[in-house]
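pasting for ref
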Amino acid sequence: MVERPALAVVFPRASVTGGVERIALELLRYESKRRTACFVGETLDGGDGLAHEAVPTRRVPPSLRPIAFRRAAARTLERLAPGTTMSLGVNCPPGDVYWVNSVHRSWLDDGGDLVVRGMKVPAGLRRALLRHQVLLRLEHDYFVNHRPRAVICCSAREAADVRRLYDVPEHLLRVVPHGYDADVFSPARRAALRERARSELNVSDGDVVVLMVANEWHRKGLGTLLEAVAALGDPRVRIDLVGAKAPDDYRPLAHRLGLADRMRWHGPTPDVARFHAAADMFALPTTYEPFGLVLIEAMGSGLPVITPRLAGAAEAITDGVDGLLLDDPRDATQLTAQLTRLLDADERARMGAAAAASAAGYEWSRVLARVDTVLFPDG
């Protein structure tokens, strides 16, 4: 058993793959150099030397896993008695400090129709699904029935969402963006890896690769990206997808648009930067994005990015200088125009260099120093 730590970071998984999972891991690495810190969760990947108190959860249907994890983690925390608890989601026991990475109710309001096996499912029907009912109830309990001493939000928009939807007092809110590892995501590393990465991924010299990294293809706008690439009518352009879930629901659309051979899914990876090296641009026409860690990582690698203004990470982008911003993430015509602009190699190089410079302020060391002052205001 881990001795009583100064800090417990709670989430089901900490890993270099995934968004919140990566945040949990980076926070643990940072805090473990300063005080006793422990991860309370089911699995810890890539955390050599980090303390881990495993949370045993019984097998339950997927829709009920958030409840099962919250209950099991609460029992573990009671036994562990950490000085401060940081919880990273509504599937976690409410802690002393929340780090909010999405607001489920807001996503359901903005998500639009869902694609299942190539068929559209009206957005309103999703709320009736058990999975969403469970998360909405947990979210309401998390924000309304408990009062942490601080709530960290990753963007101003997300802070506005928790105030508007759950009446969280403004004095509890702190806005701190997500970060990136400048040693992993840099123009120099991208240049060094590029030739080999393109060879390994079977990218021809004339190919123009549009990269998308996501685990929720519907929310992240894969359908819109497919329609926009098809409208380009340029056979050089291919779409490379990196993420845990296969984009099977979008294969029928890719076939109809003539893109079946130009949409390639590579699965999850612990080294997204390798795919940055092979890519020419990064697109994420997401319909809901409190921040967008993958956007900052792409910018750090020197990739020009296309994403909507609604994304939290859009705060780091000056439209037309270091990236391109969509007014409407569902507007495939506007996305096509922006992709067309980035077909010019000189424009990509100019914008990519500016993107790397803009990302510099988001290095993990800077971001986590701000988080640390929230967790331990007395030092």
